[in-house]
Amino acid sequence: MALDLVSIAQPHYIPGYTGHCPEYKYRIGDTYGSTTHKILLDPSVQHSERLVLSDRTADDFQIYRPPQTDIDVVNARFRNGDPVYKHPMIPGYEGFLPRLNAHFGQRYTVAATEALSEFERTQLNQRAARNQLERVVDLQAGKGQPWDLADRFSATAEFKLPLVAVRPECAGILRDEPMDEPKLSPPSHSISPYFMDNEDPEKYIKKGFTGHVPYGFQRFGEPSKKLTNSALCDFSSNYRRRQSTEWAPVNVVK
């Protein structure tokens, strides 16, 4: 009897459920379970005819992992000559498994089987696309007979396969042949604009720089590039002058 006083009647949403509950934000002053219980039974609330949280004990609902289709794909790969991967994969295997790093939250056997199935399906799709491309090449070369309307259109297409290079200067790139190219000079962007030559066209500070610009506080009315160039030239000239006079080493003669 005491348990009935503290328990929440069914149906209700379990506290911590983060899904949508219609009109929940308009109900206040009660616990989450009691509020959702009233909402689910209120005929004036617009919600689905079937409860989102249904009682799974009334039927034999169960999810089997991995699916039988994935198991069949892995076993078919084993029968076709792969002596390494076979369902079920024994936990503790330390070899490489393709696509295994993309599966989380499952046992090793389940994750390995689903990863192998996904990898094998990708391989089959790529192999089918390659075979189709080779068939189009043969049809356009007159080595086969078209089977359907798609093959007829492929055989009479304007652009023939394989595509030929129309830019001779790119032949070395397309064929992976080495070509003699002039050496590139090292980039000069690593030199600070404060110590560039005054004749250097790159001696300026880009627009939007919010740091300190020496000798720039007394300049205005000019574009940013011209203003910062003039300020940096004055800074460099003054720096080199003081470096050769005030900061020069002093020789003491007795």
From TrEMBL:
Cellular localisation: Cytoplasm, Cytoskeleton, Cilium axoneme
Family per record? Belongs to the CIMIP2 family.
Give the main location: cytoplasm
| Residue intervals of the Ciliary microtubule inner protein 2A-C-like domain | 10-42, 89-132
GO cellular component terms listed in the entry, alphabetical order: axoneme; microtubule cytoskeleton
Q: Which UniProt keywords apply?
A: Cell projection, Cytoplasm, Cytoskeleton
Q: What is the lineage of its organism?
A: Eukaryota, Metazoa, Ecdysozoa, Arthropoda, Hexapoda
Q: In the UniProt record, does the keyword Iron-sulfur occur?
A: no
- State the name under which the record lists this protein: Ciliary microtubule inner protein 2A-C-like domain-containing protein
What Pfam families has UniProt attached to this entry? CMI2B-like
